[in-house]
Amino acid sequence: MNYDLINLETVDSTNAFLKQHLKVNKVYRPLVCVTQRQTAGYGQRQRAWLTNAQSCIFSIAYPLVQGDPIAPSLSLKLAISLHRSLTQLVPESLWLKWPNDLYDLQGKVAGILIEVAKTSEAQSCLIIGIGINRHALLSAQRQVGASALSYFDTEDLLALLMQNLSSLVMQQHDYDYWALHDYLSLGEAVSLISHDNATIQKQGLYQGIDNDGSAKIDTGQSELMRLSSGWSIRKRSEKAKSLSG
User: Fold this and answer.
1) What is the largest CA-CA distance in the chain?
2) Is the dihedral of CA 179, 142, 9, 25 positive or negative?
3) What pLDDT, in 10s, does the model give residues 176-232?
């Protein structure tokens, strides 16, 4: 897929930059903003997005066809596309954690933040922020359960990723791919944390991904609980960690 590129040495946030850019500029195809240093990056719920000088940081403004709905499974599709791309560039084994994080054996290596913005002509665009840890980590990153990948070239990753993003629709083979690389095992004991109130927790057994992209949890009730993006899942064995992106 062809795309345009903006390369910045320093920016507050690549997502914020693209949202401002779209207010005065038209986009006819995906626009990627890459930076060497991000001073005010943010993740879900505006939590700080921790990066360092080795981090791979970029955002994509992806134009949407007018009238097309945003599928609930979009987060999964983006994570799968990133996973497919990274595994061609690094030796580490990587896993997919619902809804759109990537983990290796030591912890979280990549996160995705999805927002929606409009151009000056009211065209809707996805703003897809991606942060990937490359060696070495800051102590603050280790404290929240982060891990890091071997070095890879950002341009190589973008070339692969944009090919994999030629379609944002989840197909059956994508669900099969997720199941093959799922960070959580079927029947594994997990804790659930509500984003609205982090003190609210539930316990259950992970039952995989539903066709609408939700995570299925057996909480002992008559019906499975289906999680939306308003929840996070942790392995029961994990220590409490920050929910930052």
Assistant:
1) 54
2) positive
3) 999 999 999 999 999 999 888 777 789 999 999 999 999 999 999 989 999 987 899
Domains identified in the chain and CATH numbers? 4-180 (3.30.930.10), 189-235 (2.30.30)
Q: What are phi and psi of 37, to 5 degrees?
A: -150, 130
Q: Beta strands 4-11 and 31-38: pairing type?
A: parallel
User: Minimal CA–CA distance to 232: which of 48, 108, 85, 88?
Assistant: 108
- Cβ contact 160:130 at 8 Å: no
What does the alpha-carbon distance between residue 78 and residue 85 come to, in Å, rounded to a whole number? 11
Tell me whether the omega of the peptide bond preceding residue 122 falls within 30 degrees of 0, making it cis.
no
Instruction: Please report how many Cα atoms fall inside a 13 Å half-sphere around the Cα of residue 202, on the Cβ side.
Output: 19
Q: Which residues contact 166 (CB under 8 A, 6 or more apart)?
A: 1
Over its C-alpha atoms, the chain yields an Rg (Å, rounded) of 18
